[in-house]
Fold:
Amino acid sequence: MVRAEPHSRTVRICARLGGETLLFKLPAILSDLVLGWLIYRAGRAKLGSGTAIGLMLLFLFNPAVLMDSAAWGQADSFFLVFLLLSILGASEQRFVRSAIFFALATLVKPQALIFTPVLLFAFYHHRAWKQLAVGALYGLGIFAVLAAPFFWNNGGIGGLIDLYKGTLSSYPYSTVNAFNLYALTDPLWASIDSMWLGITYRAWGFIFILVAVALAAYYSFKKDRKELSKSFFIGMVLITIVFVFGTKMHERYMYPALLLCLFTYIESRDRRFLTLFLGFTLTQYLNVGYTLAHLNAGNNPPSDGIVLVTAIANIALALYMLYVGYVVYVRKEIKPILPPAAAAEKYDADLELAEGMRPLPKSTSRIGLPKLQRKDWIWMLGITAVYAALALFHLGSAKAPETLWEPAASGESFVVDLGQSSQLERVNIFGGVGTGKFKLEFSQSPDTWSGPLDVNEDVGNVFIWKSQPLNVAARYVKLTVTSPGFTLNEMAFYEQGEAKHRFRSPALHLMVQLPKGASRPTCLMNNRSSRRIPGL
Structure:
C-alpha cells in the first residue's frame, strides 16, 4: 500500500478547484470563440480573409474581453452570441430568425431589451408585419418552453413576470460601479432617489433612455431607411448612451459596444469605428479590472482619479461616436483605412523631408528659447484647469473625527442598537492608520446573529470612506475584531431613503442621527470589558 504524501493531496485539491473554476468559466470562454468566428465570417465576406483574421484576433485577445470572461467568468459573451445573431438576422432581412434569437437573448439576460428598437425599426422600414407576427409567435413560444421548467412549480407565468420586474427594478442606485456620468456627480452607489440639478437620478435614467431611443431613431430614419447594415451602429448608440448617461448600470454593461464597433466597421469600412473600438477597450478594461480588483479586496471602487478620468473618457467617446455616426450615415463621408504606400511614394516623401533640412545658422550668441504662442498658453491653461478640476473634485472635508477606537486583541466586539428595526442599505466606514480585519453581523435581537460581512482595513484605505452595500433588515449590529491592528474613526449605517445612523469612535463616544420619530438608541455594548456605553 502506498501512502499519499500531504503535498500530493494538496495538488489533487488544487487541481479539482482549478477544474471547477475552468468549468464555471467555460461557457463564457467558448462564447468568446463563437463571437470571434462570427466576426471572421462577416469580415471575410465584406473585407477579405486577411482583414477578417485581424479583426477576429483584435476581439479574442482584447484585454477587456479577457478580463470579463476568462478572468471574471461573467456570462456577457454567452448572452451576446444570441444578441449578435439577432442583429445579424435583422441586417440580412431574416426577420423571423432575428426575433427567435432576440427571445433567446432576453431569456439569458433581460438587458437585451435595451436593443428592442433595433428590431422594431427594421421591421417597420420593410413593413415586415407578417414576419413580425410569426417571429413574435416563435420567439414567445421558445421563451415559454425554455422558461417553463424553472417556473412550472415556482409561480408560473406570474413568477416569471415578477422575476423580470424584480431584475429591472433591482439595484436602486445612480451607478453600480459603472464609470459614467454619475460617477462624476456623486460617489458610486448613490441612492437613485438622490437629486442632481433639481431632478432625481431615477428621473434622469428615464430621460436618457428616451434620449437613446430618439438618437437611434434619428440615425435609422434620417437617410436610407431600408439600409439595415447600420443596425449594428444603432445598437451601439443604444447601449453606449444608456451606459454612459443611464442609471443602475453595472461596470460590464458596455461590453456589447466592443463587438458592435467591429461589426459597424465591417459594414461601413470607416476607420474611425476602429478608433472607437480602441477607446472603449481601454475604458471597459479599466472599469471592469479596477472594479474586480476592489471587489476581490472586499470593497467597491472609490471616487478617485482613475474613476473620474475613465468616466470623462466614456462621455467623450460617446459624443465622438454620435459625431462619427452623423458624418458616416447622414453626410455619407467615409474614411477608409489608407492603403500601404508604394516604394516610389516612400522615396518621394523621404526626399522631400531631406530637402527641407537646413544647417543651423552659425552664431556666437546663445540661441534663445522659442517664444510661446497663444495656442501654447491655451493648451497649458486648459490642461491645468482639467487637472485642477479632477484633483479638487470630491477631495473631501478639512474636518475629520478626532477620537478613534483601536482594538487590542481578536474577539473584541461591541453591539450597536439602532433603536428600531431598519432596512439597511449600506454602511460607510472611515478608518485610520493601521491594517486589520473585522466582521459585521446583524440581528433583530441581541442574542442571535446572521449575515456576516467581512471588512478589510488595508494599506491605502487611510482617512477615506469605504462603502459596503448591505440590503439587510436589522435593529442590532455587532462588530467583532478578526485581526487587530486597525483603527476605526467613524461608521455610518444608511437605511433606505437616506436616513442615517452614524457612530463615531464607539469605545469612547456615540453620536446617533435618526429620522424624525425614531427612538434613541439604548446602548453600545463592549463585550471585552462588559460595560454599557449609553447613547448620547
User: Anything to note?
Assistant: Residues 36 and 60 are 6 Å apart (CA to CA).
